[in-house]
Amino acid sequence: MRHILVEEVSMTYENEKKPALDCINLDVAQGEILSLVGESGCGKTTLLKIIGGFEDPELGKTYFHGKETEAVKLKLIRGHANVRYIQQGLDLKPFYDVAGNIGEHIRGYVPEERAKRLTYLIDLVGLNGMDKKLPRELSGGQQQRVAIAQALAKEPEILLMDEPFSNLDTPTKIQLIADMKVMLRKANITAIMVTHWMEEALRLSDRIAVMRDGKIIQSGSAEELYRQPNCPYVARFFGNANLLSAQDAQKLDINDGQACCIRFEDLQWSQEGIPVEVVSSQFLGPTDQYEIEADGIRLRITTDQAPTGFVKVKHVTEYV
Ligand SMILES: Nc1ncnc2c1ncn2[C@@H]1O[C@H](COP(=O)(O)OP(=O)(O)OP(=O)(O)O)[C@@H](O)[C@H]1O
């Protein structure tokens, strides 16, 4: 069932010429986890703020369960009920400890249940033993975990997250994303996350919407976007893309001379094929990554094989 609908939403900030959002259409199903990705300034946060009821669109409407949401300008308090928003920049109370900061968001429980829920949330975000610490005694990543626990404390119907994992080290981030996914599923929470990090989007979300210049230019499952990007901008977001112009493709005799993308793992060392020179190499654990040059064109290849001086293209990703 459709939970959130964004219909033809446009918005230009005061004194700005260019719209921050330009006719956005988006729907998110009940319990779906959607990631918004795109280069800095493309409008991700603005869209999240409009969905969360912190900004009004200039044009267009938003709906929850088919009901139009109330305009921000008509409300005393910004933000829609049942929507929690984890913002960039944290909003922790400096004189409350971790337990206090999280606990004040747990409402509607009898004291015993409340204490249990507090312990559960502290445990969930990996802050055991830190419940008596004040925000200034925590690292940036630990503060971020408090903010996540606060947002989950109220069991929201919709969770909006703006770069929620940005201050965390990779192992903590991966663990928290896995826990978060289980929790969102269990509570059937509909979630939208803004992120710059594609791996975060891949790990957490069911669907990814790619934004550029205030528009959603493609949305789909991670696999759809990976296998069938509609342009180089989308292909590039996964990081491992050799983007070939039509001129490059003609030079290397690839894809009938049409512009395309070749994923790093879709190039293979071979005994014959395109002659290349290795420019540099990096150890990546299970594979190595080589920067190579073929007829003046720089490419990258990730492989566990040793270089041979020639590469073969295993698969070409065409733009749909
Ligand atoms: N309060 C504001 N007043 C004027 N312009 C704004 C304001 N907030 C954002 N903008 C502009 O609107 C556009 C979209 O901004 P937004 O913050 O939504 O982008 P974003 O994709 O979330 O960026 P980032 O990834 O850097 O956080 C940008 O050009 C930005 O400069």
TrEMBL record:
Pfam families: ABC_tran. It comes from the Bacteria. Residues 4-238 form the ABC transporter domain. The keyword Cell wall biogenesis/degradation does not apply. Keywords: ATP-binding, Nucleotide-binding, Transport. Signal peptide: none annotated. PANTHER family: SPERMIDINE/PUTRESCINE IMPORT ATP-BINDING PROTEIN POTA (PTHR42781), SPERMIDINE_PUTRESCINE IMPORT ATP-BINDING PROTEIN POTA (PTHR42781:SF4). This is ABC transporter domain-containing protein.
